[in-house]
Design brief:
The structure is a homodimer of 360-residue chains. In chain A, the strands form four sheets. A seven-stranded mixed beta sheet of chain A has the order 1-2-9-6-5-3-4, with helices on both faces. In chain A, strand 7 and strand 8 form a beta hairpin. Chain A has two domains: 171 residues, Rossmann fold (3-Layer(aba) Sandwich), CATH 3.40.50; 183 residues, Dehydroquinate synthase-like - alpha domain (Dehydroquinate synthase-like, alpha domain, Up-down Bundle). Chain A is globular. Helix content of chain A is 47%, strand content 19%. In chain A, helix 9 crosses helix 10. Chain A is α/β, with parallel strands linked by helices and 360 residues long. At the A-B interface, helix 3, strand 7, strand 8 and strand 10 of A face helix 3, strand 7, strand 8 and strand 10 of B. The complex binds nicotinamide-adenine-dinucleotide (2 copies) and zinc ion (2 copies). One zinc ion (ZN) binds next to helix 10 of chain A.
Chain lengths: 360, 360
């Protein structure tokens, strides 16, 4: 097991990464306020991993309540969130009860938002079970649900007290989901860690084959990058925005196609190609750089072309996104491989051209 | 105009109290991030005060969007909250847009919670128009909506950037609402300010007659008390809980009768009598102290007896309330007039007896 620390003063918390962690109740126990937890999971993950976690906790004397949500991004809504509140209230969970989110990013985002709102805030633990959740969504305290008019529009910054990333859970993850997680892993290399990018170029097939050592290294290094960014800029006033590389384009794809058509990581990959293409047009990246990014995504079995929604539709959807300030599109672009920056000056026509060039 | 400061470090904010403040756009302008506001009001307050506020802001060059909610505690729900999100999204409000809540505590609580959640947090200004909101709910950053199983169960701690208490708006407030606000004013005297309590005993009829000078003094002193408590204990780990005098009993009345039957302040008055009665039974207050409290509430035209729901039902409803820790009822009681403390040791039978003694 490896342990990282997210340095947020009196809200600092550990990230444990390793094998067999679900059965190690003492790691959870150490972070509880009272021996009482409410586990939020879903109908796919629950049957696989709830039993083991629950048994370990109950054996350690913890009182456990559970709610299982329907599976899917389409259910990341207020109605589903309310099922968590219903459970918390009917089971008489207290403000000191700890909510535990066991699942992928959808369960983590909803569980975290529920914890942020229940009685104005209850303690919260993340047990991410997808690669994407282990390297990205479980770390950093962003929580949210979707609104029909925009993804992740309603949410809170709310930090967990612990992240427990058990690599063994990745054994049952569908290949497509593993690939989607790799999109975020590659992102860290692109925005701030060119050594990691080189390691990924050397190791991608080991990751695809779920070599535990390679996964361990990639997850640890991704979390370290994310933890550093979050500690420096918790509420995304500055540097944290760089984590959104490919995301403004990607959200347009997700919303344009309807939530759940493409996976988040898939949309991020295609969106990152658009950001890279725009960076090339601004003279920041060489054509060869763009090719290197594309090659890595292709090896990860990720899409490198966006769906043909039309540039106008992309721009309209992007204007609805959060990364808008004073009516201008603020985009994360690449100054070099391993170095990102926020850019608010690109002409809409230039952005449109980059989008068109990366749709097929 | 008088100005107080809520000392919360980099989230400190001013409370302006005075006459004619709605027309003074410069006070609002000074606290905006961008010249763009989204006003949340309701169908009663909007027709009275929205026009003046809106005209002043637009004249000062501010872009104004508006949503008007149905009036009443019964609408303090997710569905109504969602109408705010719908407006913010269809009007393309940005994360830097400031949400302005113009109305009583219901509008303020919902507007504040919407601001806390929209894109994970947008700036927020309170313009309270009831006495209760001016002395209590607009200050301190508690926001919430109700859940069918409990009042204010879903919410956030989220501080405004400004509170603008325009005393002129109280002119149109129904007598019953004024009285409800007085319950919270009297509360400050009871829990931590015996000089203020004496002033209230001398001045209650002037307040009932809406003498502006008396109102100004009472609001300013109430806000000062609240601001001090909030600055010392923002998220209610300790002292802030004292502000809940009468509230655990009161919430049981509100929920037991169905939201909207009794006003919040009315429930708090009757609930405070129960807390006082229990304090007397514990030997902390003299019978004469309880009589003094009762006399003040009676002069304020507030109920001093709870509805006959039966002690068992009260206790069941109170156990659903937030002020429960490890299965024990934690209650705010009075050690003396002007001094409150949290007590978690009272026997349920003793609590039940105090409730019965104060129901009629
Ligand atoms: N909060 C953040 O900072 C942040 C960052 C990135 C993404 N997100 C959000 O995360 C979500 C995407 O997360 P995700 O990719 O984990 O999707 P997901 O939660 O939908 O999980 C993907 C699928 O895998 C299943 N699954 C999960 N763990 C499994 C396992 N161990 N074995 C087998 N199946 C398993 C899930 O039930 C689901 O069907 C999006 O809603 C996105 O907005 C949030
Ligand atoms: N956030 C907190 O710290 C806090 C503290 C106390 C109470 N509260 C909440 O506040 C709410 C009660 O607030 P309230 O008492 O202001 O109730 P309210 O908001 O329902 O207002 C009372 C009535 O007066 C009307 N009204 C408002 N201003 C008026 C004016 N100037 N002239 C004429 N009519 C006017 C309203 O439309 C409403 O009908 C409850 O939901 C309670 O939970 C919150
Ligand atoms: Zn992402
Ligand atoms: Zn109150």
């Amino acid at each position: 097991m490896q342990t990282l620390n997210v340095a947020l003063g009196d809200r600092a918390y550990p990230i444990h990464i390793g094998r067999g962690l679900l059965g190690r109740a003492e790691l959870v126990l150490a972070r509880l306020k009272t021996p009482r937890v409410a586990i939020v999971t879903n109908d796919t993950v629950g049957p696989l991993y709830l039993g083991g976690l629950r048994a370990a906790l109950e054996q350690a004397g913890v009182n456990v309540s559970v709610v299982s949500l329907p599976d899917g991004e389409a259910y990341k809504t207020w109605e589903t969130l309310n099922r968590i509140f219903d459970m918390l209230l009917t089971e008489r969970c207290e403000r000191s009860t700890t909510l535990v989110a066991l699942g992928g990013g959808v369960v983590g985002d909803m569980g975290g938002f529920a914890a942020a709102c229940y009685q104005r805030g209850m303690p919260f633990i993340q047990i991410p079970t997808t690669l994407l959740a282990q390297v990205d969504s479980s770390v950093g305290g962003k929580t949210a649900i979707n609104h029909p008019l925009g993804k992740n529009m309603i949410g809170a910054f709310y930090q967990p007290r612990l992240v427990l990333a058990d690599i063994d859970t990745l054994a049952t993850l569908p290949d497509r989901e593993l690939a989607a997680g790799l999109a975020e892993v590659i992102k860290y290399g692109l925005i701030r860690d060119s050594d990691f990018l080189a390691w990924l170029e050397a190791s991608l097939e080991r990751l695809r084959a779920r070599d535990p050592e390679a996964l361990m290294y990639a997850i640890e290094r991704s979390c370290r990058n994310k933890a550093e960014v979050v500690a420096a800029d918790e509420t995304e006033q500055g540097e944290r925005a760089l984590l959104n590389l490919g995301h403004t384009f990607g959200h347009a794809i997700e919303t344009g196609l309807g939530y759940g058509e493409w996976l988040h990581g898939e949309a991020v990959a295609a969106g990152t190609m658009m950001a890279a293409e725009l960076s090339r047009r601004l003279g920041w990246l060489a054509a060869g750089d763009v090719d290197r990014i594309e090659a890595l995504f292709v090896r990860a079995k990720l899409p490198v072309w966006g769906p043909k929604l039309g540039a106008a539709r992309y721009l309209a959807l992007m204007a609805h996104d959060k990364k808008v300030e004073a009516g201008r599109l603020r985009l994360v672009l690449l100054h070099a491989l391993g170095r990102a920056r926020v850019h608010g000056e690109a002409a809409l026509s230039e952005i449109a051209a980059a989008i068109e060039a990366r749709c097929r």
